TrEMBL record:
Belongs to the methyltransferase superfamily. METTL23 family. One of its GO terms (biological process) is methylation. Coiled coil: none annotated. This is Methyltransferase-like 23.
Amino acid sequence: GAGVSRPGVVAAKCGAEVPLSHREELPQCLRNCRRSCLMNGLPHVPVIGLTWGRVSPELLSLPPVDIILGSDVFFDPKDFEDILTTVYFLLEKNPRAQFWTTYQVRSADWSIEALLCKWKLKNIHVPLHSFSADKEHLAGSPLPGRHTIEMMIISLARSDGT
């Protein structure tokens, strides 16, 4: 779910080896990711068509990962389980990896807590103030402002649930 690919582009600019992915059935989004890489001097960054919840040859052939970045991927509750299914698959394949993601609380009815338990994943909340991201109008954006934004690191839970 690279979207406009800003987190991945920043990671690549900082020296990380980054494959970007977006939904395979949205070729316009894949083109936008490629264009963003080119505009940022990153022609070597692979852009891969992957769809949350779908096992594909592209998903199976991903190289080992340390960190999976997801910026606002928990947007539509109908996608939450597909996202966590894919994350679980990648974490099982890379047991020391972590899924770093942000989440804007849009409704008290939308939660991933039960799905984390179902998929044997644990969640550590990262306070926004710990990296000075709790200020209103951060970087010219109205977020976080009055919105509740959460950052979390998701990883495999141990057999005792921790």
